[in-house]
């Protein structure tokens, strides 16, 4: 019987190659809590939670505290054969702290899949054995964004996610016009406003882009997270598909958005849902409504992205992926895990997440 023996928590900070800019924040490095859970048979499960205060409300200190003081006492001594019970207890033990829950959740799933001798994507469903990611263009001047877009296309990416919503809507239109001019018609463009537009401005802006023939695949979270009526108004008044992101953290929020047809697509992130356990529920609800899902990530390393990628590969209804964050880092801290060949992501043959070690982390900060 595989029993959880110890929980180790570390912090890591790795600079990005270029600042990551959205309507909500500017990020210069990936900073996260790394979780290492070891079982009595010597197996190790890995998890990660980045600090994204402006989105999840979770800081490095709050993530660390939740894992060390609340989750660890619940975990140590528990049998992984009862992982459903473990995950239920984690979710019921405290309100919020979705990022801390996600880090522990992915480490537990890593261990459970290892015990079964399966890669995690096969344990979860095994729908496909490789996936493709887009690449994100940070919000800057139209000229700089056009140059960035060309570089990413030259590196092999055929879907670009464009950040907008930081300032004037006319500037956003110029950004997309310049990018489309630079990359031509053969590359898909997704737009992410990160809640940066007002409802009527969003409708006006998207319609204008449609009239200009800019061929936008989808627009992600055009309005404030809590404005579900406004989100629905945008969805109802444009032809371009609208994706909910920050509006959907939990399965119940997903149900409310889907029930009211407030969005055409859902973006699932482990840091919002609290991990794979709840993320699967969100995807299943969306699938029953006939709504496809994307799985995305925060600015996080290949630890958390590997877990999210395993989930994305396992399910038919997850049709889009946004996993470019590790490619933005100056240094890779992960040994093993999911591998990139341009936009194509493949999985190791080993069981679980396939992560062998996490290096370049700072000293342990608790256990």
Your description of this structure?
It comes from Paenibacillus violae. Belongs to the mandelate racemase/muconate lactonizing enzyme family. This is Dipeptide epimerase. With 367 residues, the chain is α/β, with parallel strands linked by helices. The protein is 38% helix and 25% strand. The protein has twelve helices and 17 strands. The strands form four sheets. It has an eight-stranded parallel β-sheet. The protein has a four-stranded antiparallel β-sheet with strand order 3-2-1-17, sandwiched between helices. β14 (339-341) and β15 form a beta hairpin. α1 (60-75) packs across α2 (83-93). The chain is globular. The mean pLDDT is 96.
Strand arrangement, major sheet: 5-6-7-8-9-10-11-12
Order of helices and strands: EEEHHHHEEHEHEHEHEHEHHEHEEEEEE
Name the poorly predicted regions.
none
Overall 3D form: globular
Give me the oligomer status: single chain
* Beta-strand residue fraction: 25-35%
The N- to C-terminal Cα distance equals 23 Å
Structural class: alpha/beta
């Amino acid at each position: 019987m595989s029993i959880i023996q110890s929980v180790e928590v570390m912090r890591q900070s790795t600079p990005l190659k270029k600042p990551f800019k959205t309507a909500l924040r500017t990020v210069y490095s990936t900073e996260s809590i790394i979780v290492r859970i070891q079982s009595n048979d010597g197996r190790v499960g890995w998890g990660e939670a980045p600090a994204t205060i402006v989105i999840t409300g979770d800081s490095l200190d709050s993530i660390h505290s939740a894992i060390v003081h609340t989750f660890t006492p619940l975990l140590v001594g528990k049998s992984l054969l009862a992982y459903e019970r473990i995950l239920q207890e984690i979710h019921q033990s405290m309100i919020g702290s979705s990022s801390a829950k996600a880090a522990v959740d992915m480490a537990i799933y890593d261990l459970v899949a290892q015990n079964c001798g399966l890669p995690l994507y096969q344990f979860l469903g095994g729908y496909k054995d490789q996936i493709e990611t887009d690449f994100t263009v940070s919000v800057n001047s139209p000229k700089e964004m056009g140059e960035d877009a060309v570089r990413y296309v030259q590196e092999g990416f055929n879907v670009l996610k464009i950040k907008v919503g930081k300032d004037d809507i006319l500037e956003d239109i110029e950004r997309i016009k310049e990018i489309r001019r630079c990359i031509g018609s053969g590359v898909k463009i997704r737009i992410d406003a990160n809640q940066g537009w007002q409802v009527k401005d969003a409708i006006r802006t998207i319609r204008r882009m449609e009239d200009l023939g800019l061929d936008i695949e989808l627009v992600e979270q055009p309005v404030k997270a809590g404005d579900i009526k406004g989100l629905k108004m945008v969805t109802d008044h444009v032809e371009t598909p609208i994706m909910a992101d920050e509006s959907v953290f939990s399965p119940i929020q997903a149900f409310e958005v889907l029930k009211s047809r407030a969005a055409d697509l859902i973006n699932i992130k482990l840091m919002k849902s609290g991990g794979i356990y709840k993320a699967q529920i969100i995807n299943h609800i969306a699938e029953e409504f006939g709504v496809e899902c994307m799985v995305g990530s925060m600015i996080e390393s290949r630890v958390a992205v590997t877990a999210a990628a395993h989930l994305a590969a396992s399910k038919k209804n997850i049709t889009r992926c946004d996993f470019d964050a590790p490619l933005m880092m100056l240094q890779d801290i992960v040994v093993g895990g999911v591998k990139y060949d341009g936009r194509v992501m493949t999985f190791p043959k080993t069981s679980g997440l396939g992560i062998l070690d996490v290096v370049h982390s700072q000293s342990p900060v608790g256990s």
